[in-house]
Amino acid sequence: MEWILLIFVLPYFFLLLRIYYNLREVRQFDPVESGPVLISVIIPCRNENDNISRILTEVSIQDYPEDLFEVIVVDDNSTDTSFKTALEFTGIKNCKVLRNTGSGKKMALHTGITSAIGDLVITTDADCLMKKEWLSVIASFYSANKPDLIICPVVLETIPGFFGKVQELEFLSLQGITAGTALGNNGTMCNGANLAFRRAAWITHSRDLRNDIPSGDDIFLLHSLKKKPDARIMWLESCKAVVTASASKTIPDFIRQRSRWISKGRAYTDKYTITLAIVTFVTILSQMIFLLSGLFNPVFFLIYLASIGIKSVPDYLILSNTTERYSKKNLMRWFIPSQLVYPFYVLAVALRF
Predict the structure, then answer these.
(1) What CATH class does 34-249 carry?
(2) For the chain, what are the domain ranges?
(3) Average pLDDT value for the chain
(4) In b/e form, how buried is each residue of 121-151, taking b as 16+ CB within 10 angstroms?
(5) For residue 249, what pLDDT band results from cuts at 50, 70 and 90?
(6) pLDDT score for 173
(7) What is the rounded CA–CA span in Å between residue 195 and residue 185?
(8) Is the pLDDT of residue 353 over 70?
(9) How far is Cα 210 from Cα 107, in angstroms, rounded to an integer?
(10) How far apart are the C-alpha atoms of 245 and 256, rounded to whole Å?
(11) Taking a C-beta distance cutoff of 8 angstroms, is the pair 48, 82 a contact?
């Protein structure tokens, strides 16, 4: 009779399996000749003196015509020399450095976007890296499809050690879900480190971005757009459009970051996102209960192993697909250890939340 408890894991199995089926339809975008697209690149920063010159250099060597893009750096009340360093950078023809009119990243983006002149806005972070084709590929995709929102790929930098590999693999699983749900016309996540959208769409939906919550501008914009029947939200699959973001260097930093990410979840109204979050948490909680119950009844330990197996099937398929697309297939050797660690990490984040 105890085996019937595995029913708590089955919703996760079927939801994630559907996402995997969507991922099988992903295709690399081949850039085409496009008309001129005026782009505004917004880079919010706070105490990023060690990174701001690097990100501006990355943007300065883009192969996109320099007359067709501007860069707006918005300093969010830094206490270091970030503002001065950005102001003194001379490698970009059209570059503005502004001070945040409020406080926090969301207000920094608001400051930058309201000052932008581009039809297409692209946001990224000061600690990111990108290839020289980054802007031209996004511009080509926008010209070809005219979407309201383009969800672009993000990967983590590679850092050594078990923690680094598991963190990178976990982030790739989030990217797989991001792409799979977007391809299924039911996007749940996006990342402001590599996000493009029509400035007009942002203005229309800016009231729904929950300015009372410090973060989440990216996902609140996505969820607001989803409510509009004719909104076009698309995933851009291109190795040339990938942005590499910094990884957390310590486990406490990692837990704090993930806690910030889920802290805005209480304000979500998108039913599919909420369902996916609840199903995932119930699955993890069930696994932990099975494991603890196994200390008193060996049958529950077998049920725990069975639940790991059921959950691992769609996880493996999604990660296998995603790691192959990003040429990180070697990370799959860490798949089983990450599956065993994952429930403890989720509960640690939930308890801190």
Answers:
(1) alpha beta
(2) 2-22+269-352, 34-249
(3) 90
(4) bbbbbbbbbbbebbbbbbbbbbbeeebbbbb
(5) confident
(6) 95
(7) 17
(8) no
(9) 11
(10) 17
(11) yes
Once rounded to an integer, what is the mean pLDDT over residues 256-283? 85
Residue 1: partners with Cβ closer than 8 Å, 6 or more residues away? none
- Please check the confidence at residue 308 and state whether its pLDDT lies above 80: yes
How far is it, in rounded angstroms, from Cα 295 to Cα 298?
7
CA–CA gap between residue 68 and residue 94 (Å, rounded): 9
| Distance from C-alpha of 271 to C-alpha of 260, rounded to nearest angstrom | 21
In whole angstroms, what is the distance from residue 21 CA to residue 116 CA? 38
Q: Which two tokens stand for residue 109?
A: 């983006």
CA dihedral (163, 164, 167, 171) in degrees, to 10, reads: -170
Task: Pull the structure tokens for residue 184.
Answer: 């299924």
Question: How long, in residues, is the chain?
Answer: 353
What one-letter code names the amino acid at 163? Answer: F
